[in-house]
Amino acid sequence: MTGTTAGHVVVAPDKFRGSLTSPEVAAHVAAGLRSARREHVVLLPIADGGDGTVDAVVASGFTRLETHVTGPVGERVLAAYAVRDEPDGRVAVIELAEASGLRRLSEAAASAPLTATSRGTGELVAHAVRHGATRIVLGLGGSACTDGGAGMAQALGVRLLDAAGNDLPPGGAALRDLHAIDVSGRLRGFEVVVASDVDNPLLGPYGAAAVYGPQKGATPEDVAVLEAGLARLAAVAAHASGLPGAVEHSHGLPGVAEEGRAGRAMGVAGRPGAGAAGGVGFGALAFLHAEIRPGIGYLLDLLDFDRHVAGARLVITGEGSIDAQTLRGKAPVGVAAAAAAHGVPVVAVCGRRSVGDEELRAAGIEAAYALTDVESDVRRCMAEAGPLLERLAGRIAAAFLSP
Predict the structure, then answer these.
(1) 54: Cβ contacts below 8 Å, ≥ 6 apart
(2) Domains located in the chain, CATH noted
(3) What span, in angstroms and rounded, lies between the C-alpha atoms of 70 and 99?
(4) Cα angle 142-266-149, degrees, rounded to a multiple of 5
(5) Strand 314-322 relative to strand 291-293, pairing
(6) What pLDDT is stored for residue 327 in this prediction?
(7) Does the pTM exceed 0.70?
(8) How many angstroms separate the CA atoms of 40 and 10, rounded?
(9) How many DSSP H helices and E strands does the chain contain?
(10) What digits encode the pLDDT tens for the residues 332-376?
């Protein structure tokens, strides 16, 4: 391999799930590089909108704030988000997993697919807006709920009512009883950008309930219940004043629900990303008039990646597992594409990898270095990821960075 001879090195990894946060990965790689050679290293931990997004942006200069909100099964949890003041207003980065994620479920409450709520995510949005945020960047991923963003909307003043005029209880199952939506009290004065790489629609065989419900403990019977609730939410939202049409060509609610279950829903429910995070993507589109942007691309813009990579000699990215999912546009491939625009080569670090060199190069990554290359015991790789990363960084320095 030919080493590069000018400029700095940008270290821009995602997290190693279950082992190291993205700032920790970046710090260990940088330590290994500096131990091997005197390198000017720029640390730029990254994320794609899923878990770890708040950690990544805080490491890049955002301020971390914390507040108590409602967890996915109703308990109070301490959740964080990040803010930064910009010339056009305050930006808040909110990670759904912080308030409404699977990792918030205790072992005793690990199976709550019908009642888990996104309410805490809405409470984080409300807290940020009341503390001056005018733009919300909402990262979706790792959700415990399949409620179509209903809980989030309720926390922001939207009323979801049954036929008797009562507010619905939490969870996706309760949406089957939805009769009317009142948006007159919704919190306003802010814009929302959803950072997500998920392209599933809300309904149908590729929708939120069918694809992601089982990951949250839903049985086939539960999936049918959740699908019916989400279809009802989409249908009623299509008729609610002040909301964009959730389903087009609707001529009576029952028919719309059937059409949704057949996967033919149009409008907001059928948009790519509406099914993200148990349908919270739909809730953001329908109730908050959000714009959905590709997660890694938007976060790289937010972190000013182009400025940091200009003039660099090498970019080191990575994530816990580099596999077929990585090649479909996850964080390392997004970094590689952004670096390629500047003509900067990219290598990756990971815990393990299951794709070949040719596939990596086709994705813009010249090489990938795995912890399993230096330690065959996977448990030790997890426990000793930091020191092993430093060893890998020494190998990268020898191969790609000229003296």
Answers:
(1) 64, 80, 81, 82, 93, 94, 95, 98
(2) 9-46+315-400 (3.40.50.10350), 53-296 (3.90.1510.10)
(3) 7
(4) 30
(5) unpaired
(6) 85
(7) yes
(8) 9
(9) 15, 13
(10) 999 999 999 999 999 999 999 999 999 999 999 999 999 999 988
